[in-house]
Amino acid sequence: MNIRALLQVAPILFRHLEGYFELAEQDIAATKAQAVARLRVVAIFCVSALFMLLMLCVLVIALTWDTDYRVLAVALVGGFFTVVTVASGFYLAQLQPTEPFMELRREWRQDRQLIYRLISGDDENEPANASRIDQSENVGVN
Q1: How far apart are CA 119 and CA 3, in angstroms?
Q2: What is the pTM of this model?
């Protein structure tokens, strides 16, 4: 690595570092706003769905109360909720989480490639270890 090239690139690196912090701040704010909005909607949906299902269960039991099928109705309602719970558990287990800081990663990757080219003096090729670094970014990310 050429020290002179590094000294020329240092001011750019510090400006980009500031830009990275701004991007991270924007990504965090956007992720927080999305998470809060989604959580609010999910909470409203869950409470409403719970009351709806409770009223449906009461309706089924009330309609079958004076018949010989009331125990069967209670058992079927319980079985239905068991099936729904298991199915939703499998569905939740297969959901892929969203990746935070996608814009920051994209900018970092582009800037890192530019820095490699500036330091090495090669306008077309980046060092072989750059692809290894790109792969290491995704370690632990599903």
Answers
A1: 9
A2: 0.44
